[in-house]
Amino acid sequence: MGTHQRLLFSSFSFYLLLLLLTGVHGSSGDSHHHHHHTHRHLFNFKPSKLFVFGDSYADTGNNRKSIANSWKVPYGVTFPGKPAGRFSDGRVLTDYLARFIGVKSPIPYRWRNFAVNRLKYGMNFAYGGTGVFDTLFPDPNMTIQIDFFQQLIKDKVYTPIDLQSSVALVTLSGNDYSTYIARNGSAQGWLDFITQVVNQLTVNLKRIQGLGVKKIAVSALQPLGCLPRSTFASSFQQCNGTQNELVSYHNLLLQQVVSKLNNETKDSSFLILDLYTAFMTVFKNKGERPGDSKFENPLKPCCIGISTNFSCGSVDENGAKKYTVCDDPEATFFWDTVHPTQEGWRSVYLALQATLEQL
Asked: Under DSSP, is residue 274 helix (H, G, I), strand (E, B) or coil?
């Protein structure tokens, strides 16, 4: 898909020009400043539950073992020490957000009947590979994930009081866009499609709010042009600027939507987790501040297929690995061609902390 994708993105110059003319570029970088004053006095409460909707950036084990690499070695090598359904060597964004609000990482929806004592921390409905629309993965899209949540409320697993003291995390990391490319093989209608995606995301956010969740944190799109599947072409040396311009367009629309939602609501609030700026901050970091990680080459993944067709975790018919793993995952930002390592997520979490204070 990498080469195919690059060819397609090279034909975006017209859209790029359009984006530049409308002054979109770079605007996603300052999303949290705009809303700072709206959040400070809204709803100072101690959340006791976390509900999660989205994709592999938030999934902690919903994907079926038969289809997901997240259940194959070497995933989970850092935490919990074996593959457990997270698309990383260890913890992901959900785990860090749970830690921040002071609850245990919520149980994946698929395992809800096996750990009833964990229901009190909320629930994770995110499935790797999904989007707001149907993607190439057969797993439940975000609408269906919210249906699951609604059913649990109907069944009184969660009461209105539970929801009053809860936070939702909603991640959208680009699966709708990779599906669009795979299905259409053309850049035609790209800007319209971005608008459709953000519109559907808005419907989903309103629905989660309508079910009674008071605080909703939604991720802005990360710099897709900096994912190893895109930087592979330059031997992991540089990001694809055209892809990142399109990401900025998505993030600008999301910012406008969130501003509007916050203006319309009195006791609820929406917060953007600006993954774009957080990733970029980490990439540029030279390790000046204590606790900061400095990654030698942040664009190069730890676990990499031996050829472009092989992915992390794949083996041949004799069980021989078709991938290599770096010596120290803690020294790399990306785990595979799309997902950060645990250390990568920790760095992003630190970069997001000022925003999270508003939860």
From this structure: coil
Quick check: 42 and 267 in contact, CB under 8 A?
yes
What residues make up the domain containing 100?
2-356
* CATH number of the domain bearing residue 176: 3.40.50.1110
- Where does 223-320 show beta strands of DSSP type E? 269-273, 303-305
What are the pLDDT digits (tens) for 67-103?
899 999 999 999 999 999 999 999 999 999 999 999 9
Dihedral (Cα; 309, 142, 147, 253), 10-degree rounding: -170
Collapsed DSSP state (helix, strand, coil) of residue 134: coil
How far is the C-alpha of 178 from the C-alpha of 182, rounded, in Å? 6
**What are the catalytic residues?**
56, 336, 339
For the chain, what is the domain count? 1
Q: How far apart are CA 95 and CA 334, in angstroms?
A: 17
Is the pTM value of this prediction over 0.70?
yes
- Best CA proximity match to 167, nearest among 50, 67, 271, 289: 50
